[in-house]
């Protein structure tokens, strides 16, 4: 094992797959000589040249449209869209073309295309550079939506995405590029469509994705230390197709669910998780499901305003505690040590 | 084609080629006329945009393409599909929602495709096929083959962003793409000249420094000659170009359009320039065919259309239990 940055893990995944398969190439704004706006493709231009690390015009419809045309005619493109917000500029190509072309053509084609993009709230980037769009893409049949939270997940999932014959929206978290984590020295792949239990627990389940999965672990550690609660954290990793089984298994064990996400609460990922759990695990639920998400206002620039509308670890901790009313808590040392609350 | 083979000009008709053009244009017209009748007879439901009147563009351009060249088309794409070599039986089967239809009933009129012929799809979104064709051009250049990609689109598409992004992309990277505009003057009811700052579509191609040619889209030879030159150029590394073909759709935008925005006189004027009638007359005048031979060809086309339709009717219906197939590759 060795420690790498999240950014580096993604870079390694692309380099390894490009070495393995010459049909794989990267295209996007500033990805070449400059190494990408987030420096994810650093040094790839020198290594692979302008044909395979291709600077495109600032034109998202052309980027995704051309990537699709290339994918339909024998190549396996990775198209980078600088901010996930900018996918709104080429929404037609993604949801009307990329997502549906295989189905509309009755299976005549496959679409081996990865659209890599990134987003992060909490950086004072304001309303058009901070959003979460995963729930939009997850809505459309034909797209798979992947969001890694660690360098290990990012590398293994991106390698699988590049090898997949279906279009993948791969959303990196912009605040995690400088985070570090261990990855194996040898090659590995991670399955798309599988959630990952990042922390095991028995009292309550938190589902989360992207950076929120890491914040959920932080909240879980605090709840363990301060309240004696045993919290399970399910990192969704793939938003669509959603790994229901892992979520259901966890909720059937804990009986409580908190859905945590950086995107807006309205029609969010948490709403989908909650609906599926209610449909399938109703009898196992011991408490109402709680969603912790961004307020339904555009993301403001000023730090204080942005912090007020975004979810965070404190808000998550408070939400989990709300499921265990004060009167239900036994504050004795023995109960806290056992990690159990008694109803 | 080798340079040693002397190419015949429009005034010097090659009988075999002329009959092929005539037959293809008749086939497109009669396929679409028959499709329209299926709607009026209530045998078909859904959306259908026909290109009756515009056949010379599809036939003239596709006659210069190889089987392995790519074509991306539009919502009005039956003609391009037939001209690229598609089987009208399977096209009827697709319209009728049969398992043997090109898209197994998932696409219908607006998503007709035969990928084995390089025909990578009609498209329900105006202009969307243009950047996709540019991407096919990128793929050709990347793989180092001598294929060519063609994007068909209407005049309405030239005001949308995807057109400009696609042309710029192809021009920036010198991609082997020929952008073919079927300028039938109307985007549904709106006269394109009233909502565009450019005098003609070709001017927009010039903005991206690509050769842009305007031809009479009612004359299959004018289309053929321009297409041949531009396709040859793209094939030999000369980069993209724009071919604007002035043409006319005899019917409305779609079935529900009764054409209140144009005069019957204007329509009659364009019908006098009909690509099929005029080619037939030229053949007779040149002594290359008799009126009886033209009529026999037309009768053969009509029989082929009816036989193909009857075959399609005999195909098995789609299977509702398989509605979830082809969302993802397994």
Can you describe this structure?
The complex is a heterodimer of chains A (343) and B (330). Chain A has 343 residues and is an alpha/beta fold. In chain A, 37% of the residues lie in helices and 20% in strands. Chain A has two domains: 2-183, Rossmann fold; 196-338, Rossmann fold. Chain A has helices spanning 6-20, 44-48, 60-71, 91-98, 101-104, 134-138, 151-163, 211-227, 244-254, 269-281, 303-309, 313-322, 333-338; strands at residues 2-5, 24-28, 53-55, 76-81, 114-119, 144-146, 168-173, 180-183, 196-199, 204-208, 231-235, 238-240, 257-264, 290-294. In chain A, strand 2 (24-28), helix 2 and strand 3 form a beta-alpha-beta unit. In chain A, helix 1 packs parallel to helix 7 (151-163), helix 3 packs parallel to helix 4 and helix 8 (211-227) crosses helix 12. The radius of gyration of chain A is 21 Å and the shape is globular. In chain B, the strands form two sheets. Chain B has a five-stranded parallel β-sheet with strand order 1-2-3-7-6, with helices on both faces. Chain B starts with 14 loop residues before the first helix and ends in a 16-residue tail after the last helix. The chains are: A alpha/beta (343), B alpha/beta (330). Chain A binds chain B through residues 25, 51, 56-57, 59, 61-62, 64-75, 92-93, 96-97, 101-111, 141-142, 144, 165-166, and chain B through 70, 72, 101-107, 111, 113-116, 120-121, 123-125, 128, 130-140, 142-143, 149, 161-162, 165-166, 168-169, 172, 325-329.
Q: Count of helical segments of chain A?
A: 13
Distance between the termini of chain A: 44 Å
Estimate percent helicity of chain A. 25-40%
Number of strands of chain A: 14
Q: Which protein chains make the most extensive interface, counting residues with beta carbons within 8 Å of the other chain's beta carbons?
A: A-B, 39 and 46 residues
Counting H and I runs of at least 4 residues, what is the number of helices of chain B? 11
What class, by secondary structure content of chain B? alpha/beta
Q: Give the radius of gyration of chain A.
A: 21 Å
Beta content of chain A: 15-25%
Number of strands of chain B: 7
Quaternary structure type: heterodimer
- The stretches of 5 or more residues of chain B where confidence is low (pLDDT under 50) are 1-5
